[in-house]
Amino acid sequence: MTYSAAKSKISAMNRPTLSAMAELLKPVTWFPPMWAFGCGVVASGMPVQGRWPLVAAGVLLAGPLVCASSQAVNDWFDREVDAINEPQRPIPSGRMPGQWGLYIAWAWAALSITIASQLGPLALGAAVLGLLLGWAYSAPPLRLKRNGWWGNSACALCYEGLAWLTGAAIMALGSWPHPRSLGLALLYSVGAHGIMTLNDFKAIEGDRRMGIRSLPVQLGITGAARTACAMMIAPQLVVVALLLTWQMSGHALAVAGLVLAQLLMMRRLLADPVAQARWYSGFGVPLFVAGMLVSAFALRAAAGA
User: Fold this and answer.
1) SS3 177
2) Burial status of residue 100 (CB atoms within 10 A of its CB: 0-12, 13-18, 19 or more)
3) Same domain, 246 and 170
């Protein structure tokens, strides 16, 4: 082997593959903020015609940029925990060598701010706040994820509330969304706190060993599962009550039906939270996010009344 060939081989080994980069950015996690952004667009009551470039840029910002950046940050600062819980991930497995994980996190954050700056001050502010919360969740000295109450709150706000706010603000051309829209965004953020807790059941052993006080670690498996269910259901019941108050009885009935289905499914979740958390995430959580869209359409209908 020639010197240049050997040098090229070593250089290639020191760079991550595209597949490792894609795995680091976790496309599967982009759906919640992209969905919440779409709900904000719908809730704005504004026509989408002629604004598709703005909507497309907002979807890109919510998922493949801000969310992906937070995923890269989390994997970098969680590399020791992942070495215990999920050693096959890109960084602990060595497929993301050196400090590439951190470099990608910084690059994605910079790209996110650049795109957000073109979408108006509210969108930019929401993106910056989302990125700050993403770093605060994972990185020292704050490392909010060390406590499940704070960490899950930061994630839930980023995934639901800020994304919804961004969608509504972009459609309103930078104006503050209607208070009803803000209220629903906040309520569904509270509900998302419970969804975040479901993700913690798969990492209990590593969290205990690394001093991360997730809710399953703090409250025990049964206590955390019951808390997660309460956090998911309670704000949805408030949404139903608000929709009834706003004379949107049809939408309220639809959300109530989705809540009832979730309650029935939670019986299986509570019977064995560790084994059933992934199942509930796949089948129960979609009912939660469906309720978000129904609520958004309620506001759209009210705006057109």
Assistant:
1) coil
2) buried
3) no
147 three-state secondary structure: strand
What tens digit of pLDDT does each residue of 41-89 get? 999 999 888 889 999 999 999 999 999 999 999 999 989 888 887 889 9
Q: Which domain holds residue 85?
A: 24-41+51-174
Q: What angle do CA 164, 197, 194 make, to 5 degrees?
A: 50
SS3 content of the chain, % helix, strand, coil (to 5): 80, 0, 15
Tell me the per-residue pLDDT of 260-288, one tens digit each, with 9 for 90 and over.
999 999 999 999 999 999 999 999 999 99
Choose one of 125, 144, 174: the last residue of a domain.
174
Cis peptide bond N-terminal to 216, omega within 30? no
* Helical H segments across 201-248, by residue range: 204-210, 215-245
The helix (run of H) or strand (run of E) holding residue 13 is helix 3-13
